[in-house]
């Protein structure tokens, strides 16, 4: 199960808070313990010395250990907070008052005792606890002399085993109350902090959720969404702001896609209607002539029969040409065209295409020129697709150029590329219409009519082919003075242009 961001935040906050609370409680307890030990040790620092000075058994030297043990027993009854031990100069325990087996150690480390007797100011000083090996407690100590000779030490443990047992029970009860109270207050503060933090973090999320709900209710149409959507800061480091900006951008993108799809759908409907009409015209004519031939096969003169067959063939060619253009445009829009790019001499291609239209241009009194007439530059492109573009553009130029006009295929180097211009001296295109000439089925109002059927798909096909060739088909035109279509090709190598 994945944990969301706010759940991780809450768990982390609780964990950190609990660690801080435990650390504070432990530190406070240790500080209190050290302070209490220092106070008690300073308070009872002279206890052992006074006992040595005031008690004859210790003041005159210890010879009766049994009597001394009884003394220790009496003192422990009067002061159950203390434990009394008599040590030799090396720290060996000579006598004490305790039940058998209670005292585990036989010797006490003498260094802390000497440290305390030397009037050290660093408290608390802890010494060995004879009743628990490895444990240390605060103490009071004093040397015992006999004839100015060190006989041993009186070693008094402050806070003995019985005292520790009673204190531990009291502390457990008090600690539980303190912990319970501390946890109650801490959890209450934690709950308040979490509520404030969650309020702070969830407010922008709630705003974003409300915006999404409004957009969903508007069926994702931007123009139908209320104007009170939240404004997000794109440059913010807050993830919610960036998410809100992404949502706004996505909404704009979806709205643009809706508009484009709507326009495309409208264009397709119009295109389908126009193409249906264009297909119906040659098809109806073809059907009419064939039916006439079928019904009057025996009565029609040979001349009329030949005329009907020629017209039928012409309509069939027009129909095939229109269908081929429709399929070509469909393949280009569907991205189903494969490029076969290779380096080749552009001059040869231009001369070949010009030669293909030489007879049509001659019949109309139009001159086709390649400028310069000879050059050796190679370009990298799909020669078949480029020939298709040149064929469409030259055919359009011849169709819209009157007699005694010119169609030039000009080549020049531009920005490290080879620029190709197809210029004519034809009727031109008006400024109002030039922006629409690459739309499918669009034909300018001054389009020249001829005997062939034109679907208005040629320039749309040319533009899409040039996009595939990583180029851009541009147009410049002046009404009544001619038109120039141009594009650029990747230059491979070659010699200088020659006239």
UniProtKB/TrEMBL annotation:
Membrane topology: Multi-pass membrane protein
TM segment ranges: 6-26, 179-201
Record field: catalytic activity: ATP + protein L-histidine = ADP + protein N-phospho-L-histidine
Positions of the HAMP domain: 199-259
SUPFAM superfamilies reported for this sequence: ATPase domain of HSP90 chaperone/DNA topoisomerase II/histidine kinase, Homodimeric domain of signal transducing histidine kinase
Gene3D superfamilies per record: 1.10.287.130, 6.10.340.10, Histidine kinase-like ATPase, C-terminal domain
Superkingdom as given in the UniProt entry: Bacteria
Protein name in UniProt: histidine kinase
Organism: Paraglaciecola mesophila
């Amino acid at each position: 199960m994945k944990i969301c961001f706010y759940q991780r935040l809450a768990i982390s906050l609780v964990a950190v808070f609990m660690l801080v609370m435990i650390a504070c409680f432990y530190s406070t307890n240790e500080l209190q313990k050290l302070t209490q030990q220092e106070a008690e040790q300073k308070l009872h620092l002279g206890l052992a010395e006074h006992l040595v000075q005031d008690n004859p058994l210790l003041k005159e030297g210890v010879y009766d250990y049994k009597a001394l043990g009884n003394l220790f027993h009496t003192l422990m009854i009067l002061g159950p907070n203390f434990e009394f031990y008599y040590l030799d100069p090396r720290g060996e325990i000579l006598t004490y008052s305790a039940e058998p087996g209670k005292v585990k150690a036989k010797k006490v480390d003498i260094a802390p005792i000497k440290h305390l007797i030397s009037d050290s100011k660093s408290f608390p000083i802890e010494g060995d606890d004879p009743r628990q090996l490895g444990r240390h407690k605060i103490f009071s100590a004093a040397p015992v002399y006999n004839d100015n000779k060190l006989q041993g030490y009186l070693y008094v443990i402050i806070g003995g085993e019985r005292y520790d047992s009673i204190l531990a029970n009291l502390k457990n009860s008090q600690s539980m109350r303190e912990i319970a109270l501390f946890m109650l207050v801490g959890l209450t503060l934690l709950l308040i902090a979490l509520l404030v933090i969650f309020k702070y973090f969830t407010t922008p999320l709630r705003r974003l959720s409300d915006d999404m709900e409004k957009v969903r209710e508007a069926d994702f149409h931007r123009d139908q969404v209320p104007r009170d959507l939240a404004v997000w800061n794109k440059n913010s480091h807050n993830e919610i702001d960036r998410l809100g900006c992404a949502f706004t951008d996505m909404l704009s993108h979806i709205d643009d896609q809706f508009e484009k799809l709507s326009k495309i759908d409208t264009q397709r409907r119009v295109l389908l209607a126009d193409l249906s009409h264009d297909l119906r015209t040659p098809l109806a004519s073809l059907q009419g002539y064939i039916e006439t031939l079928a019904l009057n096969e025996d009565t029609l003169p040979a001349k009329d029969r030949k005329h009907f067959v020629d017209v039928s063939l012409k309509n069939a060619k027009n129909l095939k040409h229109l269908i081929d253009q429709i399929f070509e445009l469909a393949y280009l829009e569907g991205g189903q065209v494969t490029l076969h790019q290779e380096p080749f001499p552009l001059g040869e291609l231009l001369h070949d295409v010009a030669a293909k239209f030489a007879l049509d241009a001659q019949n109309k009194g139009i001159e086709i020129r390649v400028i310069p007439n000879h050059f050796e530059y190679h370009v990298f492109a799909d020669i078949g697709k480029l020939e298709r573009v040149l064929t469409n553009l030259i055919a359009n130029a011849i169709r819209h150029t009157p007699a005694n006009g010119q169609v030039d295929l000009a080549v020049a180097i531009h920005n490290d590329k080879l620029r190709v211009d197809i210029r004519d001296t034809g009727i031109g295109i008006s400024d109002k219409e030039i922006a629409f000439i690459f739309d499918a089925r669009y034909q300018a109002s001054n389009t020249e009519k001829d005997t062939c059927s034109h679907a208005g798909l040629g320039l749309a096909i040319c533009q899409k082919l040039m996009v595939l060739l990583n180029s851009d088909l541009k147009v410049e035109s002046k009404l009544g003075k001619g038109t120039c279509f141009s594009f650029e090709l990747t230059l491979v190598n070659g010699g200088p242009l020659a006239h």
